[in-house]
Amino acid sequence: MIEVKNLTKCYGKHLAVDDLSFTVEEGQIYGFLGPNGAGKSTTMNIMTGYLGATKGEVLINGHDILKEPEEAKRCIGYLPEQPPLYMEMTVSEYLGFAAELKKISKEKRKAQIEKVMELTKLNPVKDRLIHNLSKGYKQRVGLAQAILGFPQIIILDEPTVGLDPKQIIEIRELIRTLSKKHTVILSSHILAEIREVCDHIMIIAGGHLVASDTPENLENLMSGASHVMLEVKASKEEIEKMLDSMSDIQSVQYEETGEETNVAYVESKDGKDLREKLFYAFADARIPLLTLKLNKSSLEDIFLELTQGGKEQKEAEQKLAGKEEEK
To answer: pTM of the full predicted structure?
Structure first.
């Protein structure tokens, strides 16, 4: 549905987007993640034709957004971070105006407006001036205009900003419903929201793509099978003696609880999964093993590793690239 090829955007000497390339497939929900200033909103603005690129190209359903803007934009519904609202209009008037701009035929216009108002729960305020609405309702009006015309691709920049928890849940459900017939791309600072809603995650840092995969694959690739957490009903000395006898262990970190139990974090050599071997070793020694589990990275951990900059970010990118090659 979307091909972004070698996209670069400069503001004077500042490089906002750096040779960015990716593809978006049909019928999925894509999450765009990145710290402030990473280039997310700039990329979205270029993809939708609001900004021109310094170099590179964006193809929307085969149409170049710069060379064939009308054909490309017909395929897109867009909600910017700041919804483009006319405050002196009522909700109904604004959506009618948006439908006219989108060249929705007169015979379909009324039915479509009613449908998007129902989807975004705007019927109770349809005759009120947008100026008098709460921030949450203004966000819903912006979302309604993005959906209007039911384009193939819907791009949402921070769609749940200003919404209360109940409204956030409703918008998430709406996004899932839309994904059955549309490709959805959304950016958010709420990692739990991305994890909950998206089929595929793209992480941007410093204007370039540092990771692109499903949430589950990212967590598995960054965690691997090498880190195991043990909670053992024994002294630290007993645990050390047991683990020192095992040749497959790279390193061990201990967390003393001051009680009868102690916690050890075990990293294996060559990424081996040591859970079975550890289980039998402690069972044979009749030392109670209370917890034995992979110490997996959360999406928050992965995001921080891949976006913190400097040596640590490069190491995380190399680690991820190496795991993908093995896969």
So the answer is: 0.75
| Six-digit token string for 175 | 């996004």
Angle (nearest 5°) at CA 204 between 203 and 210? 70
Residues 86-130 pLDDT 10s: 999 999 999 999 999 999 999 999 999 999 999 999 999 999 999
Which of 149, 142, 146, 158 is closest to 89 using CA atoms?
Answer: 142
10 Å Cβ neighbour count for 257? 11
Residue 214 phi/psi, 5-degree rounding, is -75, 155
116: enclosing H helix or E strand? helix 106-119
Judge contact between 130 and 87, C-beta under 8 A: yes
Which two structure tokens, joined as six digits, stand for 315? Answer: 């190491």
Q: What is the strand order of the sheet 153-157 is part of?
A: 76-79, 153-157, 183-187, 29-33, 200-205, 208-213
Q: Over the stretch 209-240, which tens digit does the pLDDT of each residue have?
A: 988 988 888 876 665 546 788 999 998 889 99
Q: Are 78 and 147 in contact (CB under 8 A)?
A: no
227-232 vs 183-187, strand pairing mode: unpaired
Q: What separation in angstroms does the CA of 80 have from each of 42, 132, 322?
A: 11, 20, 36
Question: Given its phi and psi angles, is residue 149 left (phi above 0), alpha (psi -120 to 50 degrees) or beta?
Answer: left
The four Cα atoms 284, 285, 291, 294 give a dihedral, to 10 degrees, of -70
Q: Kindly give, in sequence order, each residue whose CB lies less than 8 Å from that of residue 232, ignoring residues fewer than 6 positions away.
A: 238, 239, 261, 262, 263, 264, 282, 287, 288, 289, 290
Nearest in space to 232 (alpha carbons), one of 269, 273, 268, 286: 286
